[in-house]
Amino acid sequence: MNFNKHIESLKVYEAGKPIELVVREFGIDPKSVIKLASNENPLGCAPAVSERIREVALSASLYPDDSYFELKAALANLHGVESKNIIIGSGSDQIIEFVIHSKCNEKKGILVAGTTFAMYEIYASHIDAPLFKTPSHHHDLAEFREMVKENAANIGVVFLCVPNNPLGECLGEREVLEFVEFVASVNSEILVVIDGAYSEFAKFKDEKKAVTPASVVSFDNAIFLGTFSKAYGLGGMRVGYGVANPNITSSLHKVRAPFNITTLSLAAAVYACKEQDFITQTLKNNAEQMRIYEEFCRQNGLKFIDSYTNFITIFFEKDTNLICERLLKKGIILRNLKSYGLNAIRITVGRADQNERVLAELAKEL
Ligand SMILES: *Cc1c(COP(=O)(O)O)cnc(C)c1O
Q1: Does residue 10 have a pLDDT over 90?
Q2: What is the pLDDT of residue 174?
Q3: Which of 17, 133, 218, 339 has its CA 20 to 30 A from that of 358?
């Protein structure tokens, strides 16, 4: 059986290793596995939300309300926008897919930073769309401007990951919005996607960093992406959203299949919007525990990137393949960045007890 040529050569996204794998391969008790590889919330989700999921499980036979009326209203209220500014996806991943499928083709590609979230490139490759990457690992807007000017006719979408995964650095709100205006002045047909998967963490650290969803709705060429997978602790529920001008959301709705999130996910996300104390608790734990990682790096002379997220990227002298392999055997799952060409490890900031164990093991590797 032959499939489309470009499909055969696709790169497959390397998802964070599941707990089940460590249990299977190394016979480790699942309760003692520490999984800090996928930037999930180490505190879980708000108790009222898991309670709600249990209740709604009794209605699993029913399709959800496909207008997502309640969830859009909750998000609109949370972000100070209107329901018509919002589109819901099965994770913000799915909104990335909607955007690429509706703006790109074999001649119109995507522009991304040298090192960024791999899914942009993967969805573009599904439809054989060209890939433009800036030379720097981090987001350098001067490089982005240069490449937009040079390739204006061949770019459909520019992705800014703010803050950036897997590095953790973050652009300022002002410079991002100025860039959006610049892109419109070069070619108003290019859509700028501002992926704010970690924006809650960035705003908590510095209000001027990352982008506020409400600030993009007045633009005709930009969309903000948010998710319930990170700060809200609902990665397993698969709910994300886009916030944009209704001209944009109404077109993207055309490629959305009905019932693209589940009855359980929908209820969980609606409840999660109300549980803002849990978000504050999450952000505080993250900031406190992040300091412990930074201190460890300073004491041991390890280079790290100042992070605006719930993970920290640390560079090592010793081969990170060896470090990650040894920690994995001890039941600690971290994200090796070797495949990005960096001898670095991305560690999701966990709970105090988890971080203590991780740092004790890392210390042995130095
Ligand atoms: C985690 C993540 C997402 C989306 O995750 P979903 O679970 O699909 O909502 C999007 N962008 C970045 C940069 C991420 O790290």
Answers
A1: no
A2: 98
A3: 339
pLDDT digits over 67-123, tens only? 999 999 999 999 999 999 999 999 999 999 999 999 999 999 999 999 999 999 999
Check whether 11 has a pLDDT greater than 80.
no
Alpha-carbon distance 223 to 201, whole Å?
19
pLDDT of residue 6: 85
- Residue in this structure with the two tokens 């002379």, named with its chain if needed: 301
Q: Which residues contact 199 (CB under 8 A, 6 or more apart)?
A: 162, 163, 210, 211, 226
Q: Which residue has the tokens 């497959």?
A: 12
Q: What is the position in ligand 1's atom list of the atom closest to the CA of 38?
A: 1
Q: Is the CB of 275 under 6 A from ligand 1?
A: no
C-alpha of residue 227 to centroid of ligand 1, in Å: 7
Enter the tokens of residue 80.
Answer: 């100070």
Q: For residue 165, how far is its CA from the centre of ligand 1 (angstroms)?
A: 9
* 335-336 and 155-161 strand pairing: unpaired
Q: Is the distance from the beta carbon of residue 195 to the nearest atom of ligand 1 less than 6 Å? A: yes
CA of 330 to the centre of ligand 1 (A): 27
Which atom of ligand 1 lies at the shortest distance from residue 116's CA?
13
Does the beta carbon of 91 sit less than 6 angstroms from any atom of ligand 1?
yes
92 lines ligand 1 (CB under 6 A): yes
The single-letter code of the amino acid at 326 is R
d(CA 92, ligand 1 centre) in Å: 6
The four Cα atoms 51, 45, 76, 72 give a dihedral, to 10 degrees, of -50
Q: What is the pLDDT of residue 56?
A: 97
Global confidence as pTM: 0.96
Tokens of 265: 């996910």
User: What's the average model confidence in pLDDT over 211-238?
Assistant: 98
